[in-house]
Write a structure and sequence with these properties.
Elements (H helix, E strand, L loop, with lengths): L3 E5 L3 H13 L3 E5 L2 H11 L3 E5 L7 H11 L4 E5 L4 H9 L4 E4 L4 H15 L10 E3 L2 E4 L4 E4 L2 E3 L3 H12 L5 E2 H9 L8 H14 L9 E4 L3 E4 L5
Parallel strand pairs: 1-2, 1-3, 3-4, 4-5
Antiparallel strand pairs: 6-7, 7-8, 8-9, 10-12, 11-12
Helix pairs in contact: 2-3
Length: 230
Amino acid sequence: MCAHVVLAEDDQKQAELVRRYLERENHTVAVVHDGRNALDEVRRQQPDLVVLDVMLPGVDGLDVCRILRRESDVPVLMLTARSTEDDLLLGLDLGADDYVTKPFSPRELMARVRTLLRRTAPKQSPKDSVLRVGGLTIDPGKHELISDGVLISCTPGEFRLMATLASQPDRVFTRAQLLEQLHGFDKFITTRTIDVHVMNLRKKIEPNPRKPTRLMTVYGVGYKLTDDGR
């Protein structure tokens, strides 16, 4: 898969290394070295993927990700030297789709890029694949989530989670099962990632996120999507 990638990395040697590896895989790469230029380049180019360092000058990577998520569902892979779980989950909470901690192997990074591009590639989908659960409509072909007639903006990870749950309404999925659907078997991703996605989705689809009636927790097991009667 050949893609257009915006690479935002302030370390020029690191940026050059990553650019070379991306171009070896036939991707077109635009390199920027600060947050403001990253935003400008993404808005101008409409890329297939953003590889985004957290520690950028001017506007840092977390703020860039936050802004991009208000404007676009472009896949975002974050590069971070912050290795604590809370720091990594913060990136996911802001809408990043994946992350790689520094120092990293370029081969591992390319594997993550390939996986993320495969997961987020547009897919042709027949009309009968549209999923409806109560007042929710999930259209994988159009990558649309509609709640009570309102189009909901969500990240690729949030959308995949909703599509998985909606594929079997009222079935309880464990966090591990949902994590496998979103990220495959990845030792760097924890099941708390699912909790972050669920928290964000409830803010978007629940009349009262503190008392959910759609995206339900089954304590000690996991989550399910249920028809709330709407």
